[in-house]
Recover the amino acids of this structure.
C-alpha cells in the first residue's frame, strides 16, 4: 500500500516532466552521458 502511495506522489509531482518527455521537448541524459535534447517530429 505504501509503495502505491509513493508511486502516485512521484507521478503527480513529475506530471509536467512526463508530458514534456512524451512531447519530445525534455532534455535527456542517456547512459552514454552525452547530453541531448529531443527534437519534436517534423510534420
Amino acid at each position: 500500500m505504501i509503495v502505491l502511495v509513493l508511486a502516485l506522489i512521484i507521478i503527480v509531482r513529475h506530471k509536467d516532466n512526463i508530458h514534456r518527455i512524451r512531447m519530445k521537448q525534455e532534455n535527456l541524459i542517456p547512459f552514454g552521458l552525452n547530453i541531448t535534447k529531443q527534437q519534436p517530429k517534423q510534420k
